[in-house]
Write a structure and sequence with these properties.
Two copies of one chain form a homodimer.
Chain A (H helix, E strand, L loop, with lengths): L2 H6 L2 H4 L1 E2 L6 E2 L4 H11 L3 E5 L5 E6 H8 L9 H4 L12 E2 L5 H8 L4 E5 L5 E6 H12 L2
Parallel strand pairs in A: 2-3, 5-6
Antiparallel strand pairs in A: 1-7, 3-4, 6-7
Chain lengths: ~140, ~140
């Protein structure tokens, strides 16, 4: 792998495309989101609206924090509360054309970020793993 | 940062030392582990025995998977089942003297790994974040 090839990579080359990404809808109850998370095995996934636009991220931590009462986990809240009330909407996003260094900088603080187009439509996710793999390859030549 | 400095770093320079790592004991019930995970905010943490030796890793995914029944999350199982019955003991470990490239290779597939000494005593954890930070620094000179 020539050094120049690393810096030529962009978010689109590195991302998991939207059709392979587990996600939930902004209007789902937490119960549905928690089942998606437990069955997919992921700690957090993107939240989209019904026109496939990016709205935020939801994870087990946020859900469990929300239902933890003074004495127990209040499981009944899972069907009462919506994903929109709990999700993290303050997460940075990338564009398909963002270069490798921009992707690297962004995943320093986030296990994954969403890749969206100019109108906010969800295109995929950029995770730490392919960044680490490419860097490992780059350092071994 | 001179290139040579990156390759001189070892696991000890990069790791979070044991006194700063949230962990649980191998004999704890899942209920205690889940509370530690929710309050610390971490998706998974190390499992130690009472002599501070590394035994495995426990996370929200493993716990929630274990208590998910056919119709509901069976919360009563949280006080009946022990961490030892659910934890993942098949996780690779590092030694303090392992070099940067060994650390990088290991975190490709794991968000963190434990650093242990020759007798298996827990010394700290090696996470993806400092690896990504160092690589970002290295690529910017
Ligand atoms: N089914 C599986 N098979 C093999 N390895 C697995 C795995 N599930 C998790 N891992 C490993 O564990 C890391 C952390 O996963 P986590 O679910 O906490 O955190 C994940 C998850 O929140 C999200 N993610 C990854 N792939 C996803 C997908 N297809 N759909 C939705 N979210 C995804 O991106 C985060 C970072 O992923 P990354 O690959 O860098 O890092 C992953 C990967 O190295
Ligand atoms: N309180 C906090 N403040 C700021 N950022 C936070 C944070 N909690 C999580 N993050 C961010 O989210 C990433 C994933 O955290 P997670 O808990 O899934 O996965 C964590 C967790 O399972 C474990 N971990 C990290 N620090 C720990 C600690 N002090 N004690 C126990 N486990 C720890 O290592 C994994 C990878 O950590 P890494 O730092 O590479 O990556 C962290 C970090 O970038």
């Amino acid at each position: 792998v020539e050094p120049i090839e690393l810096f030529d990579l962009d978010a689109e080359n590195l991302m998991i495309p939207s059709d392979k990404v587990a996600h939930v809808q902004v209007g789902n109850p937490l119960e549905h989101a928690l089942l998606v998370l437990v069955k997919s095995g992921y700690s957090a996934v993107p939240v989209l609206d019904n026109s496939f636009k990016f709205k935020g991220i939801i994870g087990k931590t946020l859900i469990l924090n929300r239902i933890l009462g003074l004495e127990r986990f209040e499981m009944e809240k899972l069907s009462e509360v919506k994903v929109s009330e709990v999700m993290n909407a303050e997460i940075p996003c990338l564009n398909k054309r963002d270069n490798f260094l921009t992707c690297l900088k962004t995943v320093i603080n986030y296990p994954f970020v969403c890749v969206i187009d100019e109108e906010g439509f969800f295109e995929g996710i950029l995770t730490r793993r392919p960044i680490l793999k490419q860097l490992n390859k780059y350092l071994h030549v």
